[in-house]
Amino acid sequence: MAKVHVTPRMSDAAVKAKTGKAWAEWFGLLDKAGAKKLDHKAIVAHIQKKHGVGPWWRQMVAVSYEQARGLRQSHEKPEGYEIAKSKTFAAPLADVFEAWNDKEKRCLWLKDAGFEIRKATPDKSLRFTWVDGETQVVADFYSRDKSKTQIAVQHCKLPSAKAAANMKAYWGKQLESLQAFLITSP
Fold first, then answer.
1. How far apart are CA 98 and CA 27, in angstroms?
2. Rounded CA gap, 107 and 144, in Å?
3. Could you tell me the pTM of the whole model?
4. In terms of CB atoms within 10 Å, which of 39, 78, 121, 171 comes out highest?
5. What angle do CA 47, 53, 55 make, to 5 degrees?
6. Residue among 143, 144, 131 at smallest CA distance from 174
7. Do the bridges between strand 136-145 and strand 148-158 make them parallel or antiparallel, or are there none, so unpaired?
8. Cβ atoms of residues 81 and 149 within 8 Å
9. Chain centroid to CA 101
């Protein structure tokens, strides 16, 4: 399998500071260990057993390796593709949460608002099955101060890289629509 040029999400300095090795060293070690023929779990297990790297970093190293070697596409997870989009709004947390949680308000800014929320944790998160009936969405809310709120939308179990790219663009537009709604609503 040919090597694929992918820029890891973390710098060489960051990965070396946390794991003791830069990307080229990791990729060389994993190539020598035969990781191109292993599944994700086996790569992670190898990194843990042979190199003692903590849980978050061994996942980062494994995913970056898989992407660099063409074993995994960007946004690809074992259960499908996953994207995330976030935005900070000049609005209090309660207002932003209500704009999502209240179906009537949600219909005023969200193009595809016809889903049912499975779980709502007030001023923290919403979980729902998307209108396609198959993919999952999580919206997490973070207060940045009394008048600023950040929202992070994660859309999971998408069927393809194209669907992931489309939904990333979609959520970008919808968060812009939410911003306009928050500015104009009383």
1. 46
2. 26
3. 0.68
4. 171
5. 95
6. 131
7. antiparallel
8. no
9. 21
Name 141's bridge partners.
Answer: 151
Q: What pLDDT, on a 0 to 100 scale, did the predictor assign at position 111? A: 94
Distance CA 106, CA 36 (A): 45
Q: Is 149 exposed, middle or buried (0-12, 13-18, 19+ CB in 10 A)?
A: buried
Q: C-alpha distances in angstroms, 74 versus 4, 117, 134, 137?
A: 12, 28, 21, 18
3-class DSSP state of 152? strand
Give 3-state DSSP helix, strand, coil % of the chain, rounded to 5.
Answer: 45, 25, 30
pLDDT tens figures, 35-75: 999 988 899 999 999 999 999 899 889 888 888 887 777 76
The tokens describing 37, both together, are 């023929």
Rounded to whole angstroms, the Cα distance separating 83 from 168 reads 6
The three-class DSSP label of residue 135 is: coil
User: Tokens for 121?
Assistant: 């944790």
Question: What does the block give as tokens for 26?
Answer: 């990791």
Q: Which H/E stretch holds residue 125?
A: strand 125-129
Provide the edge-to-edge strand list for the sheet that holds 117-121. 76-77, 80-89, 148-158, 136-145, 125-129, 117-121
